[in-house]
Amino acid sequence: MSRALSIAMLLVAVAGTGASAQEMVEVPNAPPPSPPPGATADECCVVVEAPPPPKPPGAVLFDVSLGPTYRRAFKEDFAAAALELEIGGQTPSWGIAGRLHADFGATRVGLPYQLVTIGPSFAFRATERLRLGFGVSFGSFSYQRVSAARTWDPTVWALTIGVDFDATVDLVRTARGGALFLAARVGWDFIDNTGDDALSTGTSLALTAALGYRY
After folding, report:
1. 6: confidence class by pLDDT, cuts 50, 70, 90
2. Residue-range definition of the domain harbouring residue 84
């Protein structure tokens, strides 16, 4: 009887040990999510902001233009061909240059006149193709008058100072950033005679249209 009881107690102990062993089995953790194709494990859940694009550097500004111009001064009409050259620097949004401008033409009655000016000009890009600008000019104005006080020298010379406002539209653009452009300008000049003909002192209003190329 005692031996049978011992065997029974041994079986109960073995059964309890097996149950405890089953309860102590470790359940493995779920594997981490796989990174998207082309990304490493460190990049899986990290948002990386792209650096801002570098600002394009400035460039040399060089343009030349030619076109007709009309001027009203001293109660007289002047018509001429306007030739202009600008050299300076520019960025994608604005530019500054030195301007050389020359008019070669005649009065309404056929008497010749010339205007030569220099000065700074400023331009600002309004749209991809449109630029707005203004300039200041200093120069000399000469023309012939039939009624000039100095009969021995009918050419009247005067100094000028003026301001102008213009707009240019790029018609054809090149891969290098140059453009064939159309320009329109309105300008105002004060003309101060340095001689003895007081009638040659006054103001002048000019309208100019030109076709040019910007490098």
Report:
1. low
2. 59-214
